[in-house]
Design brief:
alpha+beta; Aminopeptidase; 9 strands; 29% strand; binds coenzyme A
Amino acid sequence: MAPEYWGRGVASRLMQPLLGRFDDWEVSHAGLFTIANSPQHLHLYEKYDFWPGFLTALLGKPVGAARPPSGWLRFSTLTEGQQAECLATCRALTDSLYSGLDLRGEIDAVASQGLGETVLVADDAGLTGFAVCHCGAGSEAGSGECYVKFGAAPGPGAEQRFGRLLDACEALAAEAGLPRLTAGINTGRHAAYRQMLSRGFGVDFVGVAMHRRNAAAYNRPDAYIIDDWR
Ligand SMILES: CC(C)(COP(=O)(O)OP(=O)(O)OC[C@H]1O[C@@H](n2cnc3c(N)ncnc32)[C@H](O)[C@@H]1OP(=O)(O)O)[C@@H](O)C(=O)NCCC(=O)NCCS
């Protein structure tokens, strides 16, 4: 919003119809990312029943010598039929983490707009995780960076699956010649956050997740999910 309009009630007037639209769509969970230490931002969203949860950390690391895990592939290399099957499996994976969570539109947007790549990790039993990555200038990553907009590795052995997914994202960045890998994660996803720190990610910026009706959705300790809601 242009600075001359700040503090004049514009955001408050926008929130009411926005929430009405969410209700029309029967959105089961609404949340947002905002500035953690701003009383103004917290007050604004609390007025509309959004409450602060855990911090969300925006993380980054230099891309190291490629250590590609076996069994990872790019969504863009699949045939049309394989892509359709893959999208259905991705939907099932995220639905197992939080009912209704569906990234098919995001995967499709990255593919059709040439913004990056969706990384897929599989084992003998099939797809175990995926990450929607933006790559370089002209995408949400920005120049020289590979940004994991969303990643998930649920199910048995999620800790190892998540590690392989991070390795695959780093391999993608290395192959694309991008020197930095970035990703945001809510610190309420404690196990995933700790694993990222232990793999050399550092904190670039900290915000806070605010949840409508104070429902934490998938910001829980065992959820191996990467996203930051910006
Ligand atoms: C943050 C932003 C969206 C707010 O929009 P806005 O139109 O200025 O907000 P409003 O005037 O509708 O509401 C601001 C509320 O904060 C309150 N407020 C202002 N300063 C405050 C403070 N220091 N402590 C507590 N409350 C404060 C105001 O009193 C008002 O509440 P009220 O309606 O109950 O009186 C706008 O300032 C902006 O665009 N900022 C820059 C970009 C940005 O921060 N975007 C949002 C990222 S999540």
